[in-house]
Specification:
single chain; mainly alpha; serine acetyltransferase, domain 1; 3 domains; two-stranded antiparallel sheet; 4 strands; 2% strand; disordered C terminus
Length: 500
């Protein structure tokens, strides 16, 4: 970001450009170009040397224009947040700082707040007497990251359109216990993992909800009920059995034909005498990709090597995770936080614990890339202990929100009220409101009314009506009614309840 200064010896063009930069910083727009406004008295005193740049900024903040734009339309809390952006180039740091400025503006009003900001030691260190304030964003200096979600929103051109004080809301939320969410916040992601506060570009009802997770904070994870690499019998009383919403988990494990005497299997295994190795391969695809893949996406060379005993099942998992389809699905199309979380769940069978673990993966992915991340997960001590060389990874742990979403008693249970698709009657009522009154519908012929009633229901559920064609076979959809079929009266077309 260029640092602009006003000092003696500048040309007229440079001076004018610096003055316009001061307007853009304080008023968030170039008022001279957009509105033809200029505070000529202040400009003349600045040009003549009576005012320093610091005093010019101070008088802009106390002007009638600033009061009208950034004081009168907002609450006191939002005024303080915007003022920090305009005069210090950053957002609020903490609740204590907000309380200090709130006391100042409550006692002395807007002029006192402007003086308090401009006269701070921070302003003197960064801008001094000659430099125009600027936004101190990413890449300019080291700053605390706990408020980056609201701060990035504060730096946007649309910041004055937000009336709700974002920083104060974040500070108030921080006084409560840590929420059940991702350590880096919650976005508009429909999945239960809820990735990142500042990473996704939210379009609908955007809200950043960071929480003050320390580096030692760990998320609560619920065991799936399998042994998770522990010796048999350990913590069995605390297990939950199978995960709600699933049909039970089968742990696919390839075993050599002859096991050493006394060898114990870590968990339920696949009996290859009754299940072919193809079942193990398909189970690996489902775990790594989250679904069954197309034939064109299968890694035939790796499958052949696995069947021939040239590679272990662990190496087969590695090659699937590094394949081009997997990279396109979970790396190239997602932002980094979501990619790491999904890949971690696929390969290690659990969500990440917290910020400390995520930060290691950030550093690894940023310096060495996607393939190094895959190798780090598969070569980890945890993978070796739990899955070894012959077990397909499986879901070992999930978050409380994930458990609640899958549980019959959870928020997504089928019997609980939620946003359901519109039924035919609702669809017809909305259609009639949009396209005309019932009187216009009555003017249609009986055959048209019948076809529209059928179309209304078929638009919601194509399987709702079945007609019989001339050959006596049932046909679905909007097939024409037989000629001898009874035609409902026209009133049926204007009764939404009849269509349902």
């Amino acid at each position: 970001h260029p640092k602009l200064v006003i000092k003696p010896g500048l040309s007229e063009t440079e001076t004018q450009e610096t003055i316009r930069a001061a307007y853009r910083q304080v008023f968030e727009r170039d008022v001279t170009a957009a509105y033809g406004l200029a505070l000529t008295d202040l400009e003349s005193q600045l040009r003549s040397g009576q005012f320093s740049t610091k005093e010019f900024i101070r008088h802009l903040g106390k002007s009638r224009l600033y009061r009208r734009e950034f004081y009168e339309p907002f609450t006191i809390s939002r005024v303080i947040e915007l003022a920090c952006r305009h005069f210090l180039g950053r957002g609020l740091s903490c609740l204590e700082e907000f309380q200090t400025y709130f006391e100042v503006i409550s006692e002395g009003g807007l002029p006192a707040l402007v003086d308090a900001l401009v006269d701070t030691q921070e302003y003197a260190d960064y801008f001094g007497e000659e430099t125009v304030p600027y936004l101190r964003g990413l890449g300019l200096e080291a700053q605390e990251c706990r408020n980056w979600g609201p701060q990035i929103d504060l730096f946007k051109y649309s910041a004055p359109a937000r009336k709700v004080p974002q920083f104060v809301t974040t500070f108030a939320r921080a006084q409560k216990p840590l929420p059940n969410q991702h350590p880096y916040g919650v976005g508009n992601d429909p999945l239960e993992i809820q990735f990142g506060a500042i990473f996704p570009q939210e379009q609908h009802s955007p809200v950043a909800q960071p929480a003050h997770f320390s580096s030692t904070s760990r998320r609560i994870l619920i065991s799936s009920g399998l042994q998770n690499g522990h010796p048999p019998g350990l913590n069995r009383a605390a297990s939950l059995g199978r995960i709600p919403g699933t049909f039970g988990q089968t742990v696919f494990q390839l075993e050599p034909p002859h096991q050493p005497q006394g060898h114990q299997v870590q968990g339920p295994n696949l009996d290859v005498t009754h299940h072919s190795i193809e079942a193990v391969i398909l189970g690996t695809y489902r775990q790594v990709f989250g679904r069954e893949v197309l034939d064109s996406q299968r890694q035939r060379v790796a499958e052949t090597k696995l069947k021939g005993g040239q590679i272990t099942l662990r190496e087969f998992v590695r090659q699937l995770a590094k394949s081009r389809p997997c990279r396109q699905l979970y790396w190239e199309s997602l932002y980094i936080t979501k990619s790491i979380e999904i890949i971690h769940r696929r390969l290690l069978g659990r969500p990440t614990y917290g910020r400390e673990e995520l930060n290691r993966y950030y550093d690894l992915a940023g310096k060495q890339g996607f393939y190094a991340l895959i190798d780090a997960l598969i070569d980890s001590a945890e993978y070796t202990q739990v899955f070894g060389d012959d077990t397909v990874p499986y879901e070992r742990y999930l978050t409380p929100r994930g458990y609640a979403l899958k549980s019959p008693q959870g928020p997504a249970a089928w019997w609980k009220p939620r946003d359901n698709p519109a039924i035919a009657g609702d669809w017809m009522a909305e259609w009639m409101t949009t396209h005309g009154s019932s009187a216009r519908v009555l003017e249609r012929t009986p055959d048209q009314a019948h076809r529209q009633a059928v179309a209304a229901v078929a638009a919601v559920s194509p399987l709702a009506f079945e007609h019989t064609n001339a050959n006596g076979r049932p046909s679905q959809g909007l097939s024409p009614a037989p000629e001898n079929a009874p035609v409902p009266p026209p009133e049926a077309a204007v009764q939404p309840s009849e269509a349902t």
